[in-house]
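Project standup — Tuesday

K.O.: blocked on the structure for the chain from last sprint. Re-posting the sequence here as requested.
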Amino acid sequence: MISLAQTAILLAAAVVAVSLFRFARLSSILGYVAAGLVIGPWGLNLIGDIDRILQVSEFGIVLLLFIIGLELQPTRLWVMRRIVFGLGTAQVALCAVLLGAGAWALGQPPLAAAVIGFGLSLSSTPLVLQVLAERGQLKTQYGRAAFGILLFQDLAVLPALALLPLLAGSHPASGPWWAGLLKLLAVIAVVIGGGRLLLRPALRIVARVRVGEVFTAAALLTVIATALLASLVGLSMALGAFLAGVLLADSEFRHELEADLEPFKGLLLGLFFVAVGMSANLGLLKSEPLTLLALTGGFLLIKIIAVTALGKLARQRGDSARRLGFALPAGGEFAFVLFTLAARESILDAATSDLLILAVTLSMMLGPLLLIAHDSIIKRWLAPPQQPYDAIEEHDVPVIIAGFGRFGQIVARVLRVKGLPFTALDSSQTHVDFVRRFGNKVYYGDASRLDLLRAAGAEGAQILVLAIDDVDASTRTAVLAREQFPRLKIFARARNRQHAFALMDAGVRDVIRDTYGSSLEMAASVLEALGETPAKAREAVRRFRQHDEATLAAQYQVKDDETKFLATTAESAQQLERLFEADRTTPE
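H.V.: unblocked you, prediction finished:
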């Protein structure tokens, strides 16, 4: 058991190191690892019993996997299926094959090489997401791709954690592999069956008690019980917790469970990274510095090249593919878990495991710096020269069009033929140069900047047509316009319902969804081609539009509650069917 004095040392080291790293705008994970390096055997040697700390802190990994399971809602996975299961699968497979082949070529046995390749192919989900969030790049094209790949990696690590004991069990003393597989299937069946029949009803009963700490205790009991069940049959505790999380992902308790367990997960996960830092064999920096640097540099380079190539194959625009490659080269926290478990199961020898863990630690320290260096180099030497924003002529206009793509141009053409003046802004220099060739008067400028909106005449204008294609930039501009120019009426173009909800959050009431009107026009034409009179076709489309707009407003009210959102969607679909069914049964 960890003593009170050891607990005080661990907490003090974590508080100081994490605070320093966050002030330096580096990941808190690196702070925890650095704290472990300082107080461990290769530093001040304040704590010697690392194994006991690792055993306690591994419960943080169990809680992390449970919360990852809670977040894997089927609807969310379906929306991101191409990135998660397409690009994510390709990234893990390609990097694992390349890195595993390299390990095998260097003399590792096939099984050990496969574990090394897979472990090094993973990246740190909290590290990458934190870096992208701090740089405001999570909603960019490559930011969304990075999130999808990381989500697949979190999914892929579960079979690996389950298979490692089974692969180690290929030794005669451990029994045949199929026995382990049967155990795995049995645990899945028990967790799913027991969860449906017992877990949800039990949580409903506990929720009725209305005592917060009792529900927190029930949440911890859920995780511990499923983890113990998996452990009793020789499987990973994290696997059992993950299955329980997935089972509760679409339940009404998802948000409360996540909120109750988050503090425990954060502390224990931090303790795990402190223990990783303490167990890192810094003696390798003295004895094998070249090997360590070559290993770290080698797998970073392979991952950058492989992920960049996959990004280009996935048709990432501009420099998004290269940015994606530089976002995901570092190793991740699950590599620590995999390599530690593989050494425990005698798949890897201790020396190789120590070298890999130290290389992953070093890569996690270098990863954010590589992305920062890449952006700095591109911005300073390789980026095309940017012209300054255009000076906008000062004149009173009733309409400002922000975004002069296909949507904004159509609005502008109608205004022009009616003789109504407007000022058009677009943030793409290339696009502005192109549309000017056709006689369009458009200014190069970012509409989300207050000074440019003022220069465009927003204080005296009547209407802002928000036709920006980028969701994040569109929402930023809407928020700015509502705050600074409350009298300005905003008509906004939305790419989808989620974008519409974001604009409505910003106070925009007139939201027109992309392709919605043209889709309804085509629907009317199809109905006429099938024999409906033009009047009946137009009426059917009008009623559908009216019902869909009412549904959008109802969904907006419950958009943060997935259960109510899905219920509203289902109810709306049934109402629409009943509405048109009544038309079919009404005599003419």
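K.O.: great, moving the ticket to review. The longest strand covers residues 489-494. The beta strands are 399-402, 422-426, 443-444, 463-466, 489-494, 510-513.
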